[in-house]
Structures are given as C-alpha cells and as structure tokens.
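In the laboratory, one determines a bound structure by crystallizing the protein with its ligand and collecting diffraction data. In a computational setting the workflow is compressed into a single prediction: the sequence and the ligand go in, and a structural description comes out. We illustrate the idea with NAP.
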Amino acid sequence: MVATRPLLGAPLAAEIMAEVRTRVGRGRKAGRPAPCLVSLYRQIPGSPFAFYARQQEKAAREAGIEFRAEIIPPTMDRQNLAARLRDLERAEDVHGVLMEHPLPAELDFDGATAELGVAKDTDGVGLSNIGRLALQRPVQIPAVALAAVKTLRHYGIPIAGARVAVVGRSPTVGLPLALLFASKGEWGNATVTLVHSQSPDLRRTLSDQSIIVPCVGKPGLLDRSIVPEGSVVIDVGLSSVPDPTRPSGHRAAGDADMASLEGWASALTPVPGGVGPVTVAQLMANVVHGWELLAPGKGV
Ligand code: NAP
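The predicted complex, in structure-token form:
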C-alpha cells in the first residue's frame, strides 16, 4: 500500500498567473495595448462551453487580459465561420482566439482554425501549430498538454527517460501531449506509448508504464485493476456525471477512479482541482505569448 500524493493544480496555476501578470505589466509599461482574447463557442443546453468561457473570462480579468465571448449562432455555416476567423486574424486589437470544440463536422474545425496565424491560435490546435509541434519547432502548444507536463515538473516527477502512456489520441489533446512527451525539448525525452480505443488489452499495455495520462472522457476508465501499482496518474479527462447530492445534480469526474487509485498510484491529480485550473492559467500564458509575438517589430 503506497501513500498517494495528491498533485493539486492550484499552486502551479497561481505561479503561472503571477508570471502572466508580470509579462502583461511589462508590455503595458512599454506602451502596448492590453492583450485581447476572443473565445468563440456554441450555446448548447447542457454543454460545458459557456462554463469554460466564464472560467476564461475570470482568469483573463485577473491577468489584465481583455476578454470577448462570441456565440457561434446555429445559422453559421463553415464559410461564415472561416470568414469570422479571417477577420479576427486581421484585427489588430485581437491577440488570441479560442474556439471550443468539438464542432459539428459541417463547420470544419480544422478549416476554420487554419485561418488563424500561429500566434493567434491561442490553444495551438490549428494545423500549423500541431505540425510545428511535431517538427519540434513549436509556437503555441495546446494548453492542456503544457498543463500536464508542467504539473509533473512542478512536483519534481522526472519526464526524461520515463515510460509514459497517453491514453487518447485526439488531435487537440492526446496527440499533442504525446508529441510533447516524445520531443527532445525540456518537456520531453520520455518513451511514449499512445493508446486509443482500438488498442487491445489496456491493462497489459499499461503494465510497465511509470506515468499514465488518460485523455479519454470516460469516467472511472482507469482503476487499480488496470493501472500498475506505484505509477503516477495525470488525469486529463473531464466529464460531468450525475450526482443527486449536489444542488446542480452533477459533478466533474476524470477518467481515473480516484477512490480505487488512492493507496495504489504513487501520485494522482484530482478532478476537479488538478489539471483543469493549470490549463486555464496556461491558456492565459498562451494569450500573452501570442501578444508578445505580435508586438511591432517581432513576427513568427
Ligand atoms: P475525444 O476527441 O473524444 O478523444 C477521446 C480519445 O480517447 C480518442 O482518441 C479515443 O480513441 C480514445 N478512447 C476512447 N475510448 C477509449 C478506451 N476505452 N481506451 C483507450 N482509449 C479510448 O476527446 P478529447 O477532446 O481528446 O478530450 C479527452 C478528455 O479530455 C475529455 O474528457 C475532455 O473533457 C478532457 N479535456 C480536459 C481538459 C482539461 O483542462 N482538463 C482540456 C481539454 C480536454 P479513438 O481515437 O480510437 O476514437
């Protein structure tokens, strides 16, 4: 029986936010206008998009970043959406753009984000940013991927040389995370196994892994019957599950079964309170990174 170390996100999120405020202050002193983030999302009953936008707005306000939310109306088609992103790319008073996903296939998420330059693609999910990450010349790196690796570093858990399994291969979460862990840079040099829905025998695949990063969206997928004893679990999964004891009737849950892994995993990020707050802070850091790259005389 091991004592499971809780890897809380709040201290690291506070550190990242403090650095963001310093960088915004420095740029403002140099006469630059405040960074501005535009967040686009669809208003779908029961979806978390509006909640995420409120979290972003709160963090942006704390960081000195101007925030604008834009609803993608149900009538918007792929041409209109692409045209809107083209406008935002041209707007000199906008420094970052986020678009919640998944989007319906007919709105063509990849085609729309391709309208953004690498600096304004705040979450680094466009074709150019993912390609650059793959080629080890990153500009914007998806915030959730950076949040996962920064959590490990914050808590002194070595990545280089570790056997890391990323469970989930979506182009916006699992794949960039695997690329980051496998990269030669400061965040990587791990030996990476990328697991997905077609991988046979999850338990056997994970049996010799020292760090496991589920990015699936299936609450309770990983319990002690699948996770090797003593491994570190960085739980990226985030789902809403029914909970009649809560006034809202639901609660946030990760992919890890926290009760089962307590006393089994050597360290675990809780959900809520683990990777999530770090991701929001990292999004603000990405906005400021884009703002710095867009400063006159700079350029990517
Ligand atoms: P997604 O597009 O649905 O991708 C899920 C991935 O999981 C797919 O690659 C899928 O495999 C794989 N998968 C499904 N069932 C599996 C199984 N039984 N075993 C192994 N792999 C399986 O989801 P996403 O957008 O990547 O998001 C993943 C999770 O991360 C969600 O819970 C999301 O809410 C969360 N998230 C959290 C944060 C945060 O700040 N904490 C930020 C972003 C996302 P296939 O490719 O074969 O279909």
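Residues 144, 167-170, 172-174, 195-199, 202, 215-218, 221, 236-239, 275-276, 279 surround NAP (CB under 6 Å). Keep in mind that any predicted model is a hypothesis to be tested, not a measurement.
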